Amino acid sequence: MTAVLGADLGRGSGPLTGVGLAFRRALRADRWFWLIWVLVLWSFIPATATAYRSTISDDAAGREVAAGLAANPTMRAMLGPPYDLLHVGGFTMWRVGGFGAMISGVMAVLGVIRATRAEEEAGRTELLRSAAIGRHSLLAGAGGLGLAASGVLGLLIAASMVGLGTPVAGSLCMALGIALTAAVFVGVGAVTAQLSASARTARGVGLSVVGAAYLLRAVADGSGSGSSVRWLGWLSPVEWAPLARPYAAERWWVLLLPLVVAAGLIALAFSLEARRDHGAGLRAARPGPARGGEAFDSADALAWRLARPGMIGWGVGLIAFAVVMGSLADVFETVADSPELAERFRRMGAGAADLRLAFFVAMLGILVVLVAIWALQLVEHIRKEEESGRAEAVLATATSRARYLGAHVVPAVVVPTLVLAAIGVLLSLQSGIATNDASLIGRILGGALALAPGVWFVLGVGVAVHGLAPRLALVPWVVVGWSLVVNWIGGVLGFPESLLKATPFGLLPRIPAEPMAWAPVIVESVLAGLLIAAGFWGYQRRDVG
Amino acid sequence: MRYVSAVIDISGLVKTFGPTRALDGLDLRVEAGQVHGFLGPNGSGKSTTIRVLLGLLRPDAGTARLLGGDPWADAPALHRRLAYVPGDVSLWPNLSGGEIIDLLGRARGGLDGPRRAELIDRFELDPTKKGRSYSKGNRQKVALVAALSSNVELLLLDEPTSGLDPLMERVFNQVVAAERDRGRTVLLSSHILSEVESLCDHVSIIRAGKLVESGTLADLRHLTRTLIHLESDSPPRQLADVPGVHEVQVTGHLLTAQVDATAMSEVLGILAGSGVRSFTATPPTLEELFLRHYDGTS
């Protein structure tokens, strides 16, 4: 690290020669990426702060609501520990601060890999490296840009929260906490970009780290106040910002954790980069088989083979999420022991008679959006195949357009749906066994499957866009992004009911909190089918490549 | 009967991409058994033509027939009877070359195992490397082996030797010559003139999406000039007055000139009486044909 910092940053021939150029190049290439991520992420924070009084009024009823939110294990598991919900700053930090810190991690991982490994894999950095550019300059430039974006995010948060009249110390602590969390994940992205020659693998590993960090803190926070696993939260980088307690007697020293870890990870990334060849991962590429297996003979076999690693990663990740979250359900037993708490929740819950059921409904709501993101990624794969010219190679064989598209779309429908069903079972399995209630598992499975049309609808939008108007590839992502925003924060921001329902999942019945409603399930399934059919129709009529 | 035997029959083909007119009324006819060179500079529409023939692009106007069928409507069936090598080969990063060859061959309807082994050997390809680690030339070899280990009627080769070293280019030439002898039809798009010259019996030249010239190599040679070098006691300056002789230059005993085919016998008559010490005549290369058509004056 000292060698890196001590290098001549201007001219000369150190490993950081030309780092300024590398920084400007990354900025030029990815300015929209960072700008949009930073602005959207930041905007939730002042928006939530502004909406505070409409959620928690300044009277006894408001204090009642705040106490209910603070004690609700579902909310704690999803959002983190509340410290002070009776002031706008503390509420904002709890409601969007911790979650925002996690999303900033997603941004940082994607952003750093995008400017490093993805460029390297595409062969674009080789030319740059042939110029007077040091070995570490491109990584330093990309990492520097990531850190700068984290800093800008922090500045925006601090300025807006101070501007809204919240205490300066709390604003700074929250801003610094989120910015440093982003910095940690700049480090995570920089390290994972060194591991494998594939940007896709790097992204998968990096985002798994974010997911694992979130899961770790969900377990720590969701397991109840007297739990023996509360300390797990300290291991999770996305928990450090909340643990610094912005607006609630700030513990500034906690922020040393992300600072040290970010520096350590970035140093590790540089030392890994020094050990590997350009274009390679840490391990030398292993040779593959000289012949394709007997069954490796068609577009279907190819599509399955290409999707397999992602299927395993997403499938295992989502199922682990469901199992871990399912294990938290027993916390409701302790809540039920306190009649006062139980009564409070009953009044607040999403209409569910049973607190535990409300928890399952909330978890299914999160998980189904993740399943939809995964399904959409599988469709995204078709677009990448076409852009790279590899679709052309397959379509030049005796493979029809319909067969080719079907080879990718069928697994994208079937496998996520099966995993969604597995999620329903595994989420409720432990609780069902503990309470000797097998019917619970059936009901939660039904709840999961009732949301499946939403996944199919998102998929349908993706397939329709690919078939009819491939240039609009961003549209299905906007649909999913919108669902995430509404799920996460639509209620707090006081979106009208019609807007809250205007997502692929909003109109579907939230079983078991609500009774089964066949009409929306059937209508949305048919709609999804029509969208997919329209995509096939268009794909067979348009130019490819 | 001529019509029946046309493997590729394109007439008046138009394809636009937004404001760009990639193909502007193209005509192209390839008969069975021909090795047909498809020449044109970058961006002249060669790849677009081939991609229309593969049913990847839908023409805006005109007709294209391939192996007696409609390349758009009958694509999968027609593709059983042809193999394609793109100019810019993109491979799946995590599949080995051998897997890719097998996949593409089998998806086309079958692979000739012994031939596959022979081609891998001749092209000195390592089939166990992963797609991401092949160099450009080796990616090209993967696509070539995949296409050539087949028993199809038609080979569509789009600048197939880009990235190959001269040794491998020679192997390629031998392999395609063998294919020609087996009666296969080949459409070979290229801007490498020597390649077309040594392999092709017919040539079509395309420029800005239009056919500008088509015929046998011999036909096209009529259209251009032979370069002569002469060393003689008294170089005949009056050569410059003969119609069909161009750019006569005399320096001492040396004379160079360009002679149209029509003027050749008259020129030789004059030269015979000029005390020739040495004489060379260089037939036009495709390079010159090419320059003549694309230097902007034609």
Automatic annotation (TrEMBL), chain A:
Domain of life: Bacteria
Bilayer-crossing regions: 32-52, 93-116, 137-162, 168-192, 204-220, 252-272, 311-329, 357-376, 409-429, 441-465, 472-496, 516-539
Keywords: Membrane, Transmembrane, Transmembrane helix
Keyword Transmembrane helix among UniProt keywords: yes
Protein name, per record: Putative exporter of polyketide antibiotics-like protein
Record organism: Nostocoides jenkinsii Ben 74
